[in-house]
Each structure stands twice: as structure tokens, then as C-alpha cells.
Amino acid sequence: MKPKFVPVLRTALLFICALSLLSFGVAAVAQDAKKDEKPAQISDGEKQAIDKINKAATPAEKVKLSGDYVKKYGKSPMRNRIAGFVGNAVASVNDYPQRLSLSENYLKVFNLPEEANYVKPGVIEAYLNLNKFDEALKESDAFLQKNPDDVVVHVQLAWAAADQLQKQSATPKLLQAGTSSATKAVELMEQDKKPEWMTPENWNNYRNSWLARLYLANGMILLANKDKVKAKESFEKSVGIDSYDPATLLQLVNLTNEEYQDLAKKYQTEKKAEQLDAALAKMDEMIDWLARAVAATEGNAQTQQLNQQLRENLKAYFEFRNNGKTDGMNALVEKYKKK
After folding, report:
1. 52 contact partners, CB below 8 Å, separation of at least 6
2. Which residue, 4, 122, 169, 264, could crosslink 91 as a Cys pair with Cβ 3.0–4.6 Å?
3. CATH topology for the 123-242 domain
4. Do residues 131 and 191 make contact, with C-beta atoms less than 8 angstroms apart?
């Protein structure tokens, strides 16, 4: 039994598995959580000051007007809500250097410890997207000491570590932080621990959107830590949520292929019947993952070359297991296509 597999798949994996840091939407969910709060009894002057902040055209103007508001109404029961509103506006700025500058100004105005929480996750995200990992880790360490269950920051760190692993440029510090945060984020989501400031609807949307990707990121980090067994389990959990993600399916193809190659070599050396059975069973598992990957990459111009490579490998293994025939191969691929 001669193991066969196209080695270029590892390169193809990096092409399709390009991870990127995304906006985590903290501002939107945090603001929604305040809708049911009863308005405080405040003076007409304070109402006018708040109205000016609300109507300000840019986050920078909101921060500037907030400085005047805090000087005059700093002890108002409305202060925390204004801090949250302006902090959300700052965290929504997609120009990351500008966000960092605005966050610095914000923290000069809203200088209470709890008010920093409205912008710190956005600061961490900005540093990560700017590849300023030392600054991001310094900020996240301080933030997580006070907020150990902040799932958003844990997801940010886990995804950043996986992204840098894919680019082969993860620093030891980032990998260590990503390993810890990936484990913690998965735990929080599996236990359905909704942050207090998220509405149930936004938590469900956030959790459903990120859990599969988080399992993918966790699997990549586990691979970097040489734990292939747990990595495969994590990838399988990801596929259980999102059955059509090419990056995750390719990871499973590669890991299963490695398992098969090891079993095949062992059989070729020792020639035991049970070893042959185990190798063929693993080949069948790989055929299944290959069929899933072919189905997931078909019909997309960006993955056309990858799809061809996958199909060639599927054909080689399928023929080996079916006496040189491919009857039923296309039906297997069709089985896994999106309906």
C-alpha cells in the first residue's frame, strides 16, 4: 500500500486559511443594553449638554463636548451612560491610529476606573490590527486582571494569535496569550456565559458568529503547541457548527492524512492485519474529509486551483479503495454540497 498525497496542499491551506482581525461590534451591543434604563431626573441645562453630545457629528466632537459636560455635571447619575455612549462612538472608529488617539483623549475626560472599560477592548483591537502586539498584550493583561471573563478580549487575542500563526510570525508572548484566551473564550461560550452588558439577542448573534471560528483558531494554536489530538477535536467541533468552512476542512484533511501515513508506514513495517484494517479505516475517514473539502471549494473562482488539487487527491484515494473505479465519488461530493 503506497501512501499518496499531494504535498502542495499545505501551501494551499495557507492561501485559503487567511485569517484577519475583524470588528467585534462592541459599540453596538453595549449601547443596545442600555435601552431599557429609566431616564434620570436632570436639569434642563444638563439635558441640553447631553443633546449636544448626542448630535455631535464625529466621535472627536463628542469627546470634546464630554469634557465640558464632565466639568459641569461630573457627579450626575447620567455620567456613566454618557461615558458608555461616547466610549462606544470612539470604539467604532475604524481608523485605528485615530481610535487610539481618541481613546487617549476619552480617558482624560472619563477617568473613573469603570469608564475605561468602554474603550479598552477597542484599544486592544486597534493595537492588534496595527501589529503592535507588545502594546496590545500590555493593555490586555491589565484589562483582564480586572475583567477575567471578558469574552470579547479573549476572542481578540485568540484570533490574533491564530492569524499570526498562519503568517508564521507569532511571537512567543502572543502565542502564550492566545493559548490561554482561546481556552477561556471557548469555555465562556460553551457555558453560555453572556456578558452583563450584552442583550440576549446580541449575545446569541455574537456567539453563533464566533464560536466556529474560535474552535478553528483554538485548533491552530493547539497545533502550534504540538497537540494534534486536541487540535483535531477542536477542528471537528468547528465543522460541527460550520460544515462548509474550507480552512477548517483542510486542517482536518491534513491531520487525517498524517494519521493515515503513520498507520500505513507501521503496517508496511510490521505487516499485521489489524494495522492494515486501521490504515484503511483512516483512509476512508480522509476520503470523507476530502469530499467535504471538494464540495466546500467548488464553484468559487478563488478556490478553483485548490479544488482541482483536492479532487485529484480524492480520486486517487477513492480509486485505491474501490478497485480502480470512481463510481459513487461524485455522489459523495454532492452529498456534502450546500443545499
Report:
1. 65
2. 122
3. 1.25.40
4. no
